[in-house]
């Protein structure tokens, strides 16, 4: 009998984590590496949030908690949805997990049966299709294009929906493109969803607070309140509060679904870290002024990277609305050969040669379902970004 399950054999390990590991390996071997692969802010967790965790430890808040979150955190999450999104939820409609990733996983595990389809716009966050596969469902990828700023159109969504569609898994601002849907763009999609009452909506709002140039963030149920009874709105403290390591994510939605997610969590991990939950209470209820300061740095870095990448031969990079990623196209470089003799047949070959020959680590577009592109995370210092983009420019100019 073979060891591994057939379900697991359908799943691939996270390519973004693979790039991060490869870059770390080369660095350990003494190479001069600049990593633009990681999806986390380079800022430290704000001091008042750390202090809340220290207090929680001192007060002995170090035991098991309610499976899907302490009441104080659920209350803070309800207040957040009211404050930021104008949405009314009660604590029984809220679920807290070890990161946004577990929230999404719980929801898929709790709802998918064999053959159930999940519509995922591409480019997508690497984990979506594999999580759907792990949960026994079928990912249906709907490709958005560079021409629409990597945003799915109403017609594309309509074409992807079938009688087997269970979820539309939506993410704005997006990892990996940074694209943010305006209210009108979102309304076009929710109008389609109103015509298909069997389709549920999972909105991944992880980058809500990382939006620039006056971009107005909207979440689907805010734009179309009639979706309230079939929408799970997912969020977390990882990105905006620089708390990736604390592992707290949350969601709000219909009570039956939240109860089913609790059941999955109760038989897998139980509660998320008690100390992290108290830190998240402080994150959500405490001062938020540091977010604007961080965002000022992100905008500066985004502009720097977009400008320098557009100046690279054969590279074309749109200006995204949010998150901390850009997703340039390398259509102009396919078929060329690198100085070390590597043929750039696709974006994976490009990213591999770029890392080997210049020490710059990026993630290739095929990992996100749209090629030929690569993802740059600009959540790193201005100096590192400048040096990395200079190396990318040099690499592109040297291709023959
Ligand atoms: C779009 C998106 N959703 C969810 C997550 C998961 O966040 P967390 O670290 O809270 O699990 C990430 C993290 O990279 C992400 O980019």
From TrEMBL:
Q: Which InterPro entries match?
A: Aminotransferase_I/II_large, AspAT/PAT-like, NHTrfase_class1_PyrdxlP-BS, PyrdxlP-dep_Trfase, PyrdxlP-dep_Trfase_major, PyrdxlP-dep_Trfase_small
> Which cofactors are required for activity?
pyridoxal 5'-phosphate
Protein name per UniProt: Aminotransferase
Q: List the PROSITE patterns.
A: AA_TRANSFER_CLASS_1
Q: Which GO terms describe its biological process?
A: amino acid metabolic process
Q: Which Pfam families match?
A: Aminotran_1_2
Q: What's the family? A: Belongs to the class-I pyridoxal-phosphate-dependent aminotransferase family.
Q: Where is the Aminotransferase class I/classII large domain?
A: 32-392
> One MF term from GO for this chain?
L-aspartate:2-oxoglutarate aminotransferase activity
Subunit composition?
Homodimer.
Record keywords, A-Z: Aminotransferase, Pyridoxal phosphate, Transferase
- Which reaction equation describes what this protein catalyses? L-aspartate + 2-oxoglutarate = oxaloacetate + L-glutamate
